[in-house]
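Please fill in the sequence for the structure shown.

STRUCTURE ENCODING:
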């Protein structure tokens, strides 16, 4: 079943100028103010960067750095006098990657823009750019969710299909036990505990009223009725729980939760990152993107066209650092 991409031009590029060359060659046509806003844009309901933190790349393709369990383990650095110094390397050359280019043109007719500014002081041109950026962000979110919730993205021992009795809307279930099992499995592989749990809105709506969750908050905050993400993080022993509330609509008009009925547990790099630091995943981002070009005026429709472009690729580079719970509801 295909999803609507709203005339999104999605092209995989394996060759071409680097990000630095792109920025230099296109400097005369890029809107610097809008581009700065686009690079700082973060949709509040999109959570893919918690699993795939962005790292810059100056090329549209290459070989990604991958990590195994050995990259996470402690190394004995103690050295006796005269002994050789232990040498360490991080990561190894893995699969090839190629950035995907996402490009949309937001169309803003002149007449409603003039009326909105005159009557309400609303800048419809800025809203058009923001709306275009939001559509691209949604497509990035969908692509990340499809990758992170696919069983093929993990080793078979790190994928758990939830049985009927264990589904989180069943009274007999224990979400905490499943999360603790996943945490233990990851720790036993990489020697570090995962710090991130990601789930969709439907899963969160179920688990926040689960008996285990309510027991966690019974004596907190004046008798809270619903558990929040911080309560779940404390209950499960992880640093962060993130909920993706976005949805998308397919060609038949059917609405889908972007993150489905699944839960991802992972160790991801938090804070400043580079592609050489072990992590479950990274989002390779072309230097100089996203960018907003100077608008074109279309006389035929009496409209301004605002072109927004982004180039990136989400990559799982440390399978051992992730665990997938499938169909928990």
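FILLED IN BY: designer on duty
SEQUENCE:
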């Amino acid at each position: 079943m295909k999803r609507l991409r709203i005339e999104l031009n999605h092209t995989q590029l394996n060759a071409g100028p680097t990000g630095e060359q792109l920025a230099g060659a296109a400097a005369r046509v890029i809107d610097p103010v809008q581009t700065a806003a686009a690079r700082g844009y973060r949709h509040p309901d999109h959570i893919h960067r918690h699993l795939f933190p962005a790292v810059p790349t100056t090329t549209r393709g290459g070989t990604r750095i991958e990590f195994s369990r050995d990259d996470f383990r402690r190394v004995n650095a103690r050295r006796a006098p005269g002994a050789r110094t232990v040498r360490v390397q991080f990561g190894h050359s893995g699969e090839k990657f190629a950035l995907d280019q996402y490009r949309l043109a937001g169309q803003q007719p002149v007449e409603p823009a003039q009326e909105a500014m005159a009557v309400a002081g609303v800048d419809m041109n800025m809203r058009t750019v923001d709306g275009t950026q939001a559509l691209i962000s949604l497509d990035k979110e969908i692509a990340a969710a499809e990758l992170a919730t696919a069983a093929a993205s993990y080793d078979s021992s790190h994928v758990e299909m939830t049985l009927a009795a264990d589904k989180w809307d069943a009274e007999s279930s224990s979400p905490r036990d499943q999360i603790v099992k996943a945490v233990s499995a990851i720790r036993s592989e990489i020697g570090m505990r995962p710090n991130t749990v990601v789930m969709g809105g439907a899963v969160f709506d179920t688990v926040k009223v689960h008996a285990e969750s309510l027991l966690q908050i019974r004596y907190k905050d004046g008798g809270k009725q619903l558990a929040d993400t911080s309560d779940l993080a404390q209950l499960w022993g992880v640093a962060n729980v993130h909920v993706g509330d976005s949805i998308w609509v397919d060609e038949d008009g059917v609405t889908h939760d972007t993150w489905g009925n699944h839960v991802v547990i992972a160790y991801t790099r938090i804070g400043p990152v580079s592609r050489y630091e072990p992590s479950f995943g990274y989002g390779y981002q072309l230097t100089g993107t996203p960018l907003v070009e100077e608008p074109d005026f279309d006389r035929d429709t009496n409209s301004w066209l605002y072109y927004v472009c982004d180039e990136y690729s989400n990559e799982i580079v440390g399978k051992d650092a992730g665990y997938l719970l499938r169909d928990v509801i």
